[in-house]
Amino acid sequence: MTSTRIPTRTRILEAALAALRDEGIAGISARTIARYGDFNQALIFYHFGSVDALLVAVARSESERRSALYAEALRDVTSLRELVAVARRLHEEEFQAGTVAALTQMIAGAVGTAELAQGIREAFEPWTKLVGESIARVLADTPYVGILPEGDLTTAVAALFLGIELLVGLDPDAAAGESLFTTMESVATLVDGLLLHVVPEPDPSRP
Amino acid sequence: MTSTRIPTRTRILEAALAALRDEGIAGISARTIARYGDFNQALIFYHFGSVDALLVAVARSESERRSALYAEALRDVTSLRELVAVARRLHEEEFQAGTVAALTQMIAGAVGTAELAQGIREAFEPWTKLVGESIARVLADTPYVGILPEGDLTTAVAALFLGIELLVGLDPDAAAGESLFTTMESVATLVDGLLLHVVPEPDPSRP
DNA sequence: GTCTATAGTCGGATAGAC
DNA sequence: GTCTATCCGACTATAGAC
Prior knowledge:
- The structure is a homodimer of 207-residue chains.
- Chain A is mainly alpha-helical and 207 residues long.
- Helix content of chain A is 71%, strand content 0%.
- In chain A, helix 4 runs parallel beside helix 7 and helix 5 packs antiparallel against helix 10.
- The first copy, chain A, starts with 7 loop residues before the first helix and ends in a 12-residue tail after the last helix.
- The interface between A and B is large, with 63 and 62 residues.
- Chain B binds a DNA duplex (18 and 18 nucleotides) through helix 3.
């Protein structure tokens, strides 16, 4: 796990992610991160220059990893239900690792630090682009193309999932388990019907 | 503005809110807050005991203020469109003051500080209850009562609006202006139609 | 590349004068 | 209730030995 074969740069990135997840942005410091990775605090400055620069590097690394993992699934999305299904898979796979929570903390920490905000924004541009394209495909061939602005819908979807992770951080019980995403899949199925002008019957046994 | 007639306790609460909004949770400290309110740093500990306790007091105060301001409007809500309209009004009225952004920062900061999380959760219980009741009324008299769990929907709605403020903090241009909420009102109107099983313009040529 | 040591700053919190 | 003064731990960042 903590094998010496893993390059220090990577170890620092992983430690920063873990610290962000567990301690939150308010508890982040070079010393905290070093404790998580069991390396010397000074290495952070040697490899990344500053703590903020390290956080931007974490954002970039996470954005790339995530794009690689979910790009294929996202490209197949043509309905809202499918989009929520990908989101659910992402939530289930990433929740334990706490990577979305870490991202949420970074975004929250970017307030009042303009360069950190810009770095994170740029780091996640490829990812938001992927999500935006999926939403465009959901809208395509529905009567609402050109009526509902894709940019706003993308923002709303991104906001929804970031907000969920934020609330999960506040109250792990509230959004835990399958219930929340199951409900959202139900709603998405209903809206998909609406998009196609077909109203499905209410289903007493939620899928 | 900085009149001596305002009790110190209030001045501290307001300064903490402003500091939270401008500097974010990562930049919060007794000294930062004292600078914002132009009072002595030691007063925070005299009046509130600790910085964390002050933050919980801010959450309580904001929850009460908000409940008082929007309870009436929320009680009239019986459709999703009306709920989004209240959210839009809240966003427009509170955005400049930055109170939602401050709350977002508090929630983000609560990660890894269990007692802070519990304090904030309790502080906002009356408010989430109000929102939950509105959603219950939206669902009432639709075929989906008892099928779609209100708790999950409340969580999703709360998450959506928290996430929006989080993203606005990251990129003020992205969610600025009227566009985002106008789009959400459009979507809400469509979904309202769905909830009542009334499809705007049936199109038999589409399966 | 990684370590120790340290400068210099800022933080929470308290004691005690007024 | 509000102030000054202060303890002391934690922080960023750098210098320099290895």
